[in-house]
Amino acid sequence: MKFKTVGKLGAVALASTFILAACGSNNSAKKNSVNFRESAEIATMDQSKVTDVVGFTQLGNTEEGLYRIGKDSKVENAIATDTKVSDNGKEYTFNIRKGVKWSNGDTLTAKDFVYGWQRTVNPKTASQYAYIFSGIKNADKIAAGKANYKTLGVKADGDNKLVVTLDRPVPYFKLLMGFPVFFPQNENAVKKYGSSYGTTSAKTVYNGPFKQEGWKGSNLSWKLVKNDNYWNKKAVKTDTINYQVVKDAGTALNMYNSKKLDQNTLTGDQVKQYKNDKNFVKYLNSSTFYLQFNEKKDKYFKNDKIREALSLAINRDQFTNKVLADGSVPATGLTSAGLAKDPKTGKDFAKEVNVPEASKYDLDKAKKLMAEGLKEEGMKSLNFQLMSDDTTGAKQSTEYIQSAWEKIPNVKVSLSNIPFKNRLANSQNGKFDAVISAWGADFSDPISFLQLFTSDNSQNNGKWKNAEYDQLIKDAGDKDANNPEKRWDDMLKAERILLKETGISPLYQQAQSMLRNQNIKGIIYNSAGLNFDYSQMSVK
User: Which tens digit of pLDDT belongs to each residue from 404-446?
Assistant: First the structure.
């Protein structure tokens, strides 16, 4: 999922995929109410259109699917009560929990899954996450325009049985079922609100632990309240979660210190000040920040030497230690460290990729390659814009990278720091030259990162293309899907190609440094980039 450029609650912790957090406020209006900060607006609450961690965090607490994902990526039943898998691993039959209600009073049935999935893969919806259905029968044909979206391999056998047919076994299929894109959708509500569905709290319906209230589409505050229609409401320990978007780091810290916030992400300068505070917490996320270069809009970015030169000009050690200074570490590749281990050797995928030049700093070589690249393109200089978010940390990041790039002769860089929602839209629509992007794993497998950069993937905003890369990713999900070692090798080869060609330029793996009060226990950080499960928070 897409992450905010700096200062966002993270995904998987490096050492563990389960963390108990502590936060809460002594001055909360209710004993079990908490006040959280977001540093970006909600883009959408439409499950078929959401792409970012803000929206997914909201959906993970207001909606629910077949499974919830818990400690160490453990699959736990939610709306599904049990699952049967065929011997060939290509058919899943889920028994749907009876008596589950939507917040509008409708009964949830297997048909809600069928409708939601078909809506997402329907080309008219233009979902950026339609690709993640690959492996489900006919999903690839639908994406290629060779089959109708209603032929997707999902059907309801009555109200309480869902049958899913795959084209091929998918090793991580059960993990996908805990991801919000695969949650059910209420057809009555979607059709009632039409194109405005999911654009406000009032135009969204919920089947999860909480309902969202107060979001009008662009405002900077809203709340989650306990959903009385939730099937397991007795297990929900939190009544209210109040959200406030605060983009300025200094303002947010002041709000935390004055007990207006129960948790606050810190910038590097603030980490230095508070690292010995009893409420200070730090961990490394399963999210990678990287640069994308728009090869479709700016033909000069098709030149390998120009892209490599810009990558070599960035001193990632200095960037993470001096600018970010929040515990983040230089990214050696696209796939984050700690996400997955070699099925044969147990070695971390990120370490096995081993392409040192992808994160190397060599200004002299950068100057040489840029001169050669510009000559090949018939250009005397390079003048382009770097886009990112409008948060304090994002502005510091773009300023540092601008200064690094302008150390190369004949390179001039302007900056565009815009709201998170706008940055996502501009990235998707190709309205950028270079952009700082980020991805948090949607599930605990390298393919969650690697499938982003196939030629036709909607998340491949820079439009880098490589036929061999495409084939390796296809093989990993097709002919080698049931051969763990061969599949692993496919993915290793693919990432090496991406990095050697500077298809993207990795920047850093994000750390999360924060202050949080200790009156509330039990925030569950779900595995592999999935959403935070706030339902189990309780007052100390």
Answer: 999 999 999 999 999 988 999 999 999 999 999 999 888 889 9
- As a whole number of angstroms, the distance between CA 298 and CA 74 comes to 44
Give me the DSSP letters along 127-139. -TTGGGGBTBTTH
Whether residue 15 has pLDDT greater than 90: no
CA distance 449 to 498: 11
Which residue from 402, 410, 404 is spatially nearest to 381, judged by alpha carbons? 410
Alpha-carbon distance 202 to 379, whole Å? 53
- CA atoms of 491 and 353, how far apart (whole Å): 9
pLDDT digits (tens, 9 = 90+) for 101-156: 999 999 999 999 999 999 999 999 999 999 999 999 999 999 999 999 999 999 99
Residue 206 has pLDDT above 60, yes or no: yes
Buried-state track 148-181, b at ≥16 Cβ within 10 A, e below 16:
ebeebbbebeeebebbbbbbbbbbbbbbbbbbbb
CB atoms within 10 A of CB 188: 14
Question: Whole-angstrom Cα distance, residue 248 to residue 243?
Answer: 15
Integer CA distances (angstroms), 477 to 132, 197, 409, 463, in order: 11, 33, 44, 21
Q: How far apart are CA 77 and CA 142, in angstroms?
A: 29
